[in-house]
Amino acid sequence: KQWYQRRVAITAGKAKGKKPQRSGSNVFANFDQQQIQEFKEAFTIIDQDRDGFISEKDLKDMWASLGIVQDDKFCAEMTKVSPGQLNFTAFLTFMGEKLADTDPEDVLHNAFACFDVHNTGAIDQKTFTNALTQLGDRFTKDEIAQMYEVAPMKGDAVDWKRFIKLIKYGGDFEEEA
């Protein structure tokens, strides 16, 4: 499994501004307009036949467009997240549930800060890799490589404050002033 499937759900992002408040059963109220638009773009990429629903065939075709051959069983398992047809509202609900499953931002901040002994906002790659391979739920070499493909970097160090935002809200974040 990919590193983010085991640890966090990285979802389409939110560049700046107040975090949306979660309220009621209206899934659209859980996200701001930019997040909804980015989820819609992701949904459209997955919905290969553009019928408004994500099917096993859509998933297989999407994986194929990325150069990855997936079997029918794998794609069938992925569609089981929804009791009925997986339309955009069901997709948004699923993504909201995944986003809610991540640790609170302050918990992530405290965890990363432990490895930033000089309070630079960055953790050198060697220290970060050692922590991921030797502590807690250990990452494999492949998971680490996948993580570094998306992790915001400052030279040869992980910009952990931006990485937390990526984990919690998805998207690409500019450095904070």
Supply database-style keywords.
177 residues; mainly alpha; 3 strands; 5% strand
Task: Tell me what the structure shows.
The protein is mainly α. The chain has 9 helices and 3 strands; from the N terminus they run H-H-H-H-H-H-E-H-H-E-E-H. The chain has a 3-stranded antiparallel β-sheet. A hairpin with a 2-residue loop joins strand 2 and strand 3 (157-159). Helix 2 crosses helix 5, helix 3 crosses helix 4 (72-79) and helix 6 packs antiparallel against helix 9 (160-169). It is globular and about 50 Å long. Mean pLDDT is 77; it is low at 1-24.
Task: Explain the layout of strands and helices.
Elements: H1 3-7, H2 33-46, H3 56-65, H4 72-79, H5 88-100, H6 105-113, E1 122-124, H7 125-134, H8 141-150, E2 153-154, E3 157-159, H9 160-169
Antiparallel strand pairs: 1-3, 2-3
> Approximately how much helix is present in the residues?
40-55%
Mean pLDDT: 77
Number of helices: 9
Structural class by SSE content: mainly alpha
Taking all Cα atoms into account, the compactness measure Rg is: 18 Å
Instruction: Name the overall outline.
Output: globular
